[in-house]
UniProtKB/TrEMBL annotation:
GO cellular component: nucleus
PROSITE patterns in the record: RRM
One GO biological process term: RNA splicing
Taxonomic placement: Eukaryota, Metazoa, Chordata, Craniata, Vertebrata
Predominant localisation class: nucleus
Domain RRM: 320-400
Residues making up the signal peptide according to the UniProt record: none
Family statement drawn from the similarity comment of this UniProt entry: Belongs to the ESRP family.
GO molecular function term, any single one: RNA binding
Name of the protein described by the UniProt record: Epithelial splicing regulatory protein 2
CDD domains: RRM2_ESRP2 (cd12740), RRM3_ESRP1_ESRP2 (cd12742)
Location of the protein in the cell: Nucleus
C-alpha cells in the first residue's frame, strides 16, 4: 500500500518549499491499495505552528488564516493522529504495511525531518522511506518533462486529467490528483511497479577517508559560521533529512589546530548536495549557517589521510571520538586509561587510544580516544580540565576528519624548518612606499568585498592619472579576505586632497565608499597591522620584542624576506646597507617594503593581519634562482655562518620569551654580538638595544 502525502508550510510553496525554515501548517493524506486499487478515507489536518505569521504566498495559495491555525493541534500530536488513522485505514483495506508517496522530496527531506529535529522529537520509521512520485512518473513515462520540472499539474496535464484546482480545497485536490496519476501508472498500458523507494539515513556514519579516494565535486559543500564546539553529529543534525556520505563531515582547523567555524560536508550524490545548498542561512541554535559549494580536492585536503596507524584506529565504525589536549609528555596509555576511569571504558582498551606525535617520535600532548556509546563519551567529557600529573586536560568531541588533519599537520612538520626561497621584487627602483607625515595618500573605506584593482581605478575616474605607479594597496583581514579598505598613494598632497573631496561617499557598485586623506606613515601603520581611527594611530599587536614607535616613521626599505631567511642569507645581497645620519640624505632610493632594522615586524604582521603591502595584481615577485643567491654569497667577505660548533639550537622556550630572557639564560657565557649583527643589518638604535638588553620590552 501507498500513503499519498501532501503538505504545506507557512512560507514558500512549490520548488522553494522548506528553504525558508518556515513550519509545517497542513498535512493531507490518503491510503491507496495498489493491488485492489482501492483507497481509504482522505484526511486533512491543520498544524499549529509556533509562529502563525503566514507569508503572502501562503495566504494566497492555501487560503488559511492564523485564526484557523491557532485552533489546530501541534505537529507531534498531528503525527500521532496520522499513524493511528493510517493503521485503521489499512485494517479496513486488509493491509498491514505501507510506504509513503509524496510529490517530490522537499516535504520529507526539507520540512518534516529538519523541523522534528529542531523540536526534539522522533519521526516514526515510515518517514525514512518514501516514493518520489515525480521520479516514478518519469520512469513510467520517459517522454515526459525532466524530474526537476515536474509538478502535480504538469503530470495531470500530460495524462489528460482534470486540472481545475478551484473545485477542491487546497491540499485535497493535490492528493486526489496524485491518486489518479498513480492509478494511471498502474493501468494495463503501463503496469508500473513501485520497487525502489528513496531512503533517509537514520544517523550519520563515521569513518576514515583516504587521499587516494575520488570525491565528486558536485557532492561537497562548505558550511561556515558553525559554533566552535559543534561536532560532526551536530552538523549531521543540521542537515537532517539529507544523506551524508560515510565519514563525510570534515571540521576545518586553523593554523593553531583549533576549529575555525567551518566544515566541509560530502553527500551521497549531487541531488542531496543541491538540497543542502537550499539550507543557506538556516539556523543552528541562534546562529545562522552559510552554505556554499566546495570541491572534492578541498574535502580530501581536510579529511584525507595516508597513515596506516590512523586508518587502523578509525577502522572501528560507529565510535564516538574524544580529543584530549594538554597531556604531559611523559603520559602513557595506562595513565590515560586511569585518568578516564572505569565509568567510561575505552573501546578496545589500549587499542582505542591514539597519541599524536612529531615525526621524530616526540609527543605533542594530544591524543584521541574511542568510546562505544554516547553515555561513555559524556562521562569522559565531564573530566574536562581535571588534573593528570601536574597539568589540566582538555577534552572535546572530535571527528575522523579532525584526527586526519591533526596527524597530517604534525607528521608533515619538518624537524628543522626549511627556509623559503628568497623573494626579489621586480619593480623598477624609483618606486617605494611612501613614509613620513606628508598627507599624499588617501584611504578608501567601505569597499565592496568583491572590488578589485580595476574597480578602484574606475572609481577614481580622472584622478587615476595622479596615482603613483604601484600605489594601490589592498588591505586583507585575518582570513586573507578583502577587509573593505584600501590605500592609494597620490603624486602630491594636493592631489590627495582633491580626490578625497571629489570621491567621498561616491557609489561603487551598490555601496558608497568613504575617502579620507592620510599620510604615508598612517598608511604604513595600517598595512603592518595597526589601526587608524579618530583617536589617532594604534600600533600593530606585536607580541615579539619590537622597536619604539618613532622607528616606524623612519622605515627603511628592505627586500620582502622573513627574518629567519635574513639570518641565513647575505645581508649585502638582500638588505640595504646600514644608513648613518650623515649618509641618509645621499642614499639612493631602494625598493623596500619592510624596514631592515625591524625585521621581526614582518612576523608580527603576518601573524595578525596578513594583508599584502601592495596589491598582488599590481606587483610581481619572482623567486631568486639558487645561482643568484650563491653569487651574492660569494660577492662578500663576511662568512654566512660562524665557525662550526659556534651555534646552538634552543627548543621548548616559553611562548612569551624575549631577547632579554635568552641573554639572561646564557649569562656568564661569551656570545658574539658582532657576528650576530653581521647576519641581519641593524640600525644604530636597534644595535644599541641588542648590546643593552635591558632596553628591550617583552609584550
Amino acid at each position: 500500500s501507498l500513503v499519498v502525502l501532501f503538505g504545506a508550510t507557512a512560507g514558500a510553496y512549490g520548488a522553494k518549499l522548506g528553504s525558508d525554515e518556515r513550519e509545517l501548517i497542513l498535512l493531507v493524506w490518503q491510503v491507496v491499495d495498489l493491488h485492489s486499487k482501492k483507497v481509504g478515507t482522505l484526511h486533512k489536518s491543520l498544524v499549529k505552528a509556533d509562529n502563525l505569521d503566514l507569508s503572502d504566498q501562503c495566504r494566497e495559495v492555501s487560503g488559511l488564516t492564523p485564526e484557523g491555525l491557532g485552533k489546530a493541534e501541534p505537529l507531534d500530536r498531528v503525527l500521532q493522529q496520522f499513524s493511528q488513522l493510517v493503521s485503521s485505514d489499512l485494517k479496513v483495506l486488509g493491509r498491514s504495511s505501507y510506504t509513503l508517496c509524496s510529490d517530490g522530496q522537499l516535504l520529507i527531506r526539507q520540512v518534516l525531518h529538519p523541523e522534528t529535529s529542531k523540536k526534539n522529537f522522533l519521526l516514526s520509521d515510515c518517514f525514512y522511506s518514501f516514493y518520489d512520485l515525480r521520479k516514478e512518473f518519469h520512469t513510467c513515462y520517459p517522454s515526459s518533462a525532466a524530474v526537476k520540472d515536474q509538478t502535480i499539474k504538469t503530470m495531470a496535464e500530460y495524462l489528460g486529467l482534470g486540472t481545475d484546482e478551484a473545485e477542491e480545497d487546497f491540499g485535497v485536490w493535490q492528493v486526489k490528483t496524485m491518486v489518479a496519476i498513480i492509478f494511471s501508472m498502474l493501468s494495463e498500458g503501463c503496469n508500473h511497479v513501485f520497487t525502489e523507494p528513496e531512503t533517509v539515513k537514520y544517523k550519520y556514519e563515521t569513518g576514515p577517508c583516504s587521499k587516494s579516494e575520488t570525491v565528486d565535486s558536485e557532492t561537497v559543500i562548505r558550511a561556515r559560521g558553525l559554533p566552535w564546539q559543534s561536532s560532526d553529529q551536530d552538523i549531521a543534525r543540521f542537515f537532517k533529512g539529507l544523506n551524508i556520505a560515510k565519514g563525510g563531515v570534515a571540521l576545518c582547523l586553523n593554523s593553531q589546530g583549533r576549529r575555525n567555524g567551518e566544515a566541509l560536508v560530502r553527500f551521497v550524490n549531487s541531488e542531496q548536495r543541491d538540497l543542502a545548498l537550499e539550507r543557506h542561512k538556516h539556523h543552528m541554535g541562534s546562529r545562522y549557517i552559510e552554505v556554499y559549494k566546495a570541491t572534492g580536492e578541498e574535502f580530501l585536503k581536510i579529511a584525507g589521510g595516508t597513515s596506516n596507524e590512523v586508518a587502523q584506529f578509525l577502522s572501528k565504525e560507529n565510535q564516538v571520538i574524544i580529543r584530549m589536549r594538554g597531556l604531559p609528555f611523559t603520559a602513557t596509555q595506562e595513565d590515560v586509561l586511569g585518568f578516564l576511569g572505569p565509568e567510561c571504558p575505552v573501546t578496545g582498551g589500549k587499542e582505542g587510544l591514539l597519541f599524536v606525535k612529531y615525526p621524530d617520535g616526540r609527543p605533542t600532548g594530544d591524543a584521541f580516544v574511542l568510546f562505544s556509546c554516547e553515555e561513555y563519551a559524556q562521562n569522559a567529557l565531564k573530566k574536562h580540565k581535571e588534573i593528570l600529573g601536574k597539568r589540566y586536560i582538555e577534552l572535546f568531541r572530535s571527528t575522523a576528519a579532525e584526527v586526519q588533519q591533526v596527524l597530517n599537520r604534525y607528521m608533515s612538520t619538518p624537524l628543522i624548518p626549511t627556509l623559503p626561497t628568497p623573494i626579489i621584487p621586480v619593480i623598477p627602483p624609483p618606486y617605494t612606499i611612501a613614509t613620513g607625515s606628508i598627507r599624499d595618500c588617501v584611504r578608501l573605506r567601505g569597499l565592496p568585498y568583491t572590488a578589485g584593482i580595476d574597480d578602484i581605478l574606475e572609481f577614481m575616474g580622472d584622478a587615476t592619472g595622479d596615482i603613483k605607479p604601484h600605489g594601490v594597496h589592498m588591505v586583507l583581514n585575518q582570513q586573507g579576505r578583502p577587509s573593505g579598505d584600501a590605500f592609494i598613494q597620490m603624486k602630491s598632497a594636493d592631489k590627495a586632497f582633491m580626490v578625497a573631496q571629489k570621491c567621498h561617499k561616491k557609489m561603487m557598485k551598490d555601496r558608497y565608499v568613504e575617502v579620507f586623506q592620510c599620510s604615508g606613515e598612517e598608511m604604513n601603520f595600517v598595512l603592518m597591522g595597526g589601526t587608524l581611527n579618530r583617536s589617532g594611530l594604534s600600533p600593530p599587536p606585536c607580541k615579539l620584542p619590537c622597536l619604539s614607535p618613532p622607528a616606524y616613521a623612519a622605515f627603511q626599505t628592505a627586500a620582502v624576506i622573513p627574518a629567519e631567511a635574513a639570518a641565513l642569507y647575505q645581508p649585502q645581497a638582500l638588505l640595504p646597507t646600514t644608513r648613518t645620519p650623515q649618509a641618509s640624505a645621499a642614499a639612493p632610493p631602494t625598493v623596500t617594503y619592510y624596514p631592515a632594522q625591524a625585521a621581526q615586524l614582518y612576523m608580527n604582521y603576518t601573524a595578525y593581519y596578513p594583508s599584502p603591502p601592495v596589491s598582488p595584481t599590481t606587483v610581481g615577485y619572482i623567486a631568486a634562482p639558487p645561482g643568484a643567491v650563491a653569487a651574492a654569497a660569494t660577492a662578500t667577505h663576511t662568512p654566512i655562518l660562524p665557525q662550526p660548533g659556534a651555534l646552538v639550537r634552543m627548543q621548548g622556550l616559553p611562548y612569551n620569551t624575549g631577547m632579554k630572557e635568552i641573554l639572561s639564560f646564557f649569562q656568564g657565557y661569551q656570545y658574539a654580538p658582532d657576528d650576530y649583527n653581521g647576519l641581519i643589518q641593524l640600525s644604530d638604535q636597534a644595535r644599541s638595544v641588542l648590546q643593552a638588553p635591558k632596553e628591550w620590552v617583552c609584550l
